[in-house]
Specification:
With 371 residues, this protein is α/β, with parallel strands linked by helices. The protein has 2 domains: 102 residues, no CATH class; 198 residues, Rossmann fold. Helices cover 39% and strands 18% of the residues. The chain has 15 helices and 15 strands. The strands form 4 sheets. The chain has a 7-stranded mixed β-sheet with strand order 8-7-6-12-13-15-14. A hairpin with a 7-residue loop joins strand 14 and strand 15. The longest helix is centred in the first third of the chain and has 16 residues.
Length: 371
């Protein structure tokens, strides 16, 4: 087994010399002013961290008990080692080290793979396809989603969504793993579960993949999100036939009360009633849903459900054992998910192999692919 801790140390030392000026995602995290000269100069002075790190990291005690503790990673580091060694290819291992380095050193020091001119040019191209004056306003938010017509890019889709989200879903293909000699993705004829359907972009993405011979079950229970999701489905009537919307939250068991305050993608969700809540619904487990629908196959499960992934997986164990579907599990909501979810699936003893994907230039949107 490779020693993740020493690999991480070496990477941190090498990254410490960097000082990037073009590595901040102003699109997702807007700030009033660009990076100040003062901040850039601080970054330049931090080049000397490389020498400092070399000295400090000679002591494993200092590295673990002082350095990693500062970043609240000390309790995770041994589990990271196991996670790293469970990853099935060098591409995934390198990405994992890159992600942890970024979480420690930040955007001045570390670039993630998508941080390229091509990435920003791609988003700008999508922005140019927005239809002026045609948009939907989001509930409880000062935002709006412009309608985009992607047909000129040989993508037969019209959708209300922000340009970056469109580029990430349909062109970066967040829920497809690109290995050196293989891919992990939903394919024609598959039954795909889209857990966390939100505005419907992923449902449309999977519908295009599975085609008329397949089926997409999009799980989304926040009414404001469902409203936009349905508009997007109606804009794409051919794909709409492949999609069924399930308006229940996925959990480890069915029938539990869930209370929510509809704020679109930033909605509040609790298992107890709370002041200001706007609705109530009941949970459903994947295993119960499969049984209710009498499905004879499940080929692909994607999740982005704000940290509820371990519970959704618990409620899908029978389905995983019966069908061995391909999985694309979001693991960026909680540091425990990086290690806990892969262990949870590996402990089922089903022979899954694990790969890692990441589709932003900051810390969000890390996906664990299992096949």
């Amino acid at each position: 087994m490779e020693d993740f801790i020493n690999i991480l140390k070496t990477s941190l030392i090498n990254e410490a010399k960097n000082c990037y000026k073009d590595n901040y995602d102003y699109y997702t995290h807007p700030v009033k002013k660009p990076l100040s000269k003062k901040l850039i100069n601080i970054g330049k002075r931090l080049v000397y961290q490389k020498t400092i790190f070399k000295i400090l990291f000679q002591s494993d005690f200092i590295f673990r008990s002082i350095f990693l503790k500062t970043y609240r990673l000390d309790k995770h580091i041994d589990a990271f080692d196991k996670f790293y060694n469970l990853l099935a290819d060098d591409q995934s291992k390198k990405l994992f080290v890159n992600i942890i380095c970024f979480r420690i050193l930040g955007y001045i020091k570390v670039k993630l793979p998508l941080s390229t001119p091509e990435y920003w040019n791609g988003i700008k191209k999508i922005e140019s396809l927005a239809i002026v004056g045609d948009f939907v306003e989001l509930p409880s938010n000062p935002w709006k989603l412009d309608k985009h017509d992607l047909r000129s890019l040989e993508m037969p889709i019209q959708i209300y969504l922000n340009s970056k989200g469109i580029y990430t879903t349909f062109f970066v293909e967040q829920y497809k793993y690109f290995g050196d000699k293989f891919t992990i993705e939903a394919k024609e004829g598959d039954i795909a579960f889209d857990l966390g359907g939100c505005y419907g972009d992923t449902a449309l993405y999977f519908a295009k993949k599975v085609g008329i011979k397949g089926k997409v079950f999009a799980f989304e229970f926040i009414p404001g999100n469902i409203s936009v999701l349905n508009k997007n489905l109606e804009n794409n009537k051919e794909l709409r036939e492949c999609v069924e919307v399930i308006d229940k939250p996925v959990w480890s068991e069915s029938g539990l009360d869930v209370f929510y305050k509809d704020k679109g993608a930033s909605s509040s969700v609790e298992f107890h009633d709370f002041e200001g809540r706007t609705g109530k619904t009941l949970t459903i487990s994947i295993d119960d849903f499969v049984e209710q629908k009498k499905l004879n196959k499940v080929n692909f499960i994607k999740t982005d459900i704000e940290g509820a992934e371990p519970y959704a997986i618990k409620g899908a164990e029978k389905t995983l054992k019966r069908f061995r579907p391909k999985l694309a599990i979001s693991i960026y909501h909680n540091m425990n998910d990086f290690t806990g979810i892969v262990k949870q699936i590996d402990d089922l003893g089903l022979g899954y192999k694990f790969y890692l994907g990441h589709s932003t230039i900051y810390t969000s949107e890390t996906v664990l692919f299992c096949v």
